[in-house]
Design brief:
With 155 residues, the protein is mostly helical. Helices cover 73% and strands 0% of the residues. The longest helix is centred in the first third of the chain and has 26 residues. The protein binds heme C.
């Protein structure tokens, strides 16, 4: 009996802080999801960037796959990943600026620009390294333009 009580007390101390944390941060999962999406885009962009810079040899199938990945990931970008209240500095771990909600049209335009640039990269990445370079300028620009307006720089 005594042992059961100890176990129960232990379970309570272990699980309570976790529950409290969930209650405090209803946006934890969606913020992690959009970070994962961004990191996957960055990883594929780095593959193409390495080829554009000449740090890695141009490889048409690898470039084509990275471009297709970025296009697929870009198509997942939507305001659904940015529910109201998940902004910086309100929500823990968020770097999403309140301008996303006060200027939603501008934010949607940046998502559209990203998808256009990704489609351009899909069209040109498989041809040659110059195609990758051309695609990089537009794609890097689309990432950067949105970050400049809608992302709080990390300290
Ligand atoms: C439409 C706007 C928009 C576009 C386009 C965009 N991003 Fe982001 N990105 C954001 C916002 C907003 C954040 C901050 C999200 C947060 O902290 O919740 C972010 C965060 C990031 C992060 C940090 C993730 C982390 O774990 O903190 C990386 C890396 C990133 N973006 C890469 C990219 C790359 C690469 C591209 C282009 C292929 C891109 N982004 C295009 C809006 C955008």
């Amino acid at each position: 009996m005594k042992r059961l009580f100890v176990l129960a007390a232990l379970a309570a101390t272990v699980s309570l802080p976790a529950l409290a944390q969930d209650a405090e941060s209803p946006f934890k999962d969606v913020i992690e999801a959009r970070h994962g999406l961004m990191l996957l885009m960055a990883q594929n962009l780095a593959t193409l960037g390495g080829m554009a810079k000449g740090a890695v040899a141009y490889d048409a199938p690898v470039a084509t796959r990275a471009a297709a990945n970025i296009a697929a990931l870009s198509s997942v970008m939507s305001p659904d990943l940015f529910p109201a209240g998940s902004d910086y500095p309100t929500a823990p771990d968020s770097f999403a600026l309140p301008a996303i909600w006060s200027d939603q049209a501008g934010f949607l335009a940046k998502i559209a620009d990203l998808n256009t640039a990704a489609a351009g990269m899909v069209a040109s990445a498989g041809t040659n390294v110059d195609g990758v370079k051309a695609g990089m300028a537009a794609l890097g620009g689309a990432c950067g333009a949105c970050h400049k307006a809608y992302r709080q720089p990390e300290e």
